[in-house]
Amino acid sequence: MPRTSRPGTPALLRVLNDRTALGLLLENGPMTRNELARLSGLSKPTAAEMIRRLEEAELIEVSGESSSGRGPAAVLYSVLTDRAIGVAIDVQPLGITSTVVDATGAAHPVVFEAAEEAPGERDAATDLARAIDAACAAASRDPETVTVVCVGIQGSVEPRTDDLVFTDELPGWPRHEVTETLAKALGVEVLVENDANLVAIAERREGAGVDASTFALLWMGNGLGLALDFGGTVHHGAAGGAGEIGYIGAPIDAVDYDPEARLIDDLVTTRTIERLAGRHGIEAETLADLLEAISADPARLAILDELAPRVGLVVMPALAVVDPERIILHGPIGIAFGAELAGRVEAWLAEHSRWSTPVLNPTITQTPVLHGARHVLIDAVRQALVEAVAHLPSVGDDPPE
Predict the structure, then answer these.
(1) Domains of the chain (ranges, CATH numbers)
(2) How many angstroms separate the most distant Cα atoms in the chain?
(3) Region of 396 on the Ramachandran plot (φ > 0 left; ψ -120 to 50 alpha; else beta)
(4) Which of 120, 123, 162, 209 is surrounded by the fewest CB atoms within 10 Å?
(5) pTM score, two decimals?
(6) What is the pLDDT of residues 169-218, one digit of tens each?
(7) For residue 253, what is the DSSP state?
(8) Could you tell me how far CA 174 lies from the centroid of its own chain?
């Protein structure tokens, strides 16, 4: 039988020490042996042994020298990031955007792969594999080192059944055993998350939600999505459908702004923007082009005055149920109209509801879905590296403390 470590044995202490050293290097960047000893609380001889084992296992490398101005320069060690990497992927109707994510969180090139096949000929695993290869090629990384991917979609995966729910799009995607099927086809761990939820993670980590106790993020684009963040945790719901407000019936007050609206989704969609812009003679082929044209047109503020009440009606259910500390307007529409739309929505809510909730424009405006996936993957890739420490070969015991 294989020998297992018991609590307190030298083998177990060695693993714990090595994990501590690797974790400190991941969190703090390049460090010297003495710095590792000081931050870990271990002796210098033990720190030297940790470094030796991690270096022999090709988990860390010498990355430079640190000089305090007195005495010889000390060697700096940093984590090797090519042992395990992840790929962040944003799936959109017209194609897929992807980028490599390593344990340090360093920026890598973002690549867009246009959909090559007609919707009826699409295959999810083929699309994702192409995105992985493109991201790795752009970052000069080996696709064989990819251990996990995080995929943002316009929909959700039911956590209890692994079924694809709340979406009528995503051609070529399996409807059942989604993550299991894709993981087997790709040979890597697959994390599938709603795109609005990923954007909320990005805004929580480095944007408008950093210091909020709770916030709701409204994603407005080709569809609607609402992400709910409670103290740094995105609320998914029992079936993964938390925030799918587009399926709610339009409130009776909506008749004042859009008599044809039947669902909340009808109040703020591409069709809505097209109609509001069309009244001022503004037209374009795509939503992105239309938003750009509106932003450059003198009628912009008049259009925002008409749009703001519709957005206010959309966020009202979140205010009534959650009463978040703030609302963040996001997605292509929230990004395009920024603070001008946010200010109008906040004023409308204060006048037409019992809430005076601050409404903010987004901070993360470039590839926000990938930003959120990146944060998910940094944690996953770091965990994979830390777990690799347990499999390091044993060569004697650490020196006593």
Answers:
(1) 10-80 (1.10.10.10), 85-198+371-384 (3.30.420.40), 208-360 (3.30.420.40)
(2) 80
(3) left
(4) 120
(5) 0.88
(6) 788 899 999 999 999 999 999 999 999 999 999 999 999 999 999 999 99
(7) G
(8) 22
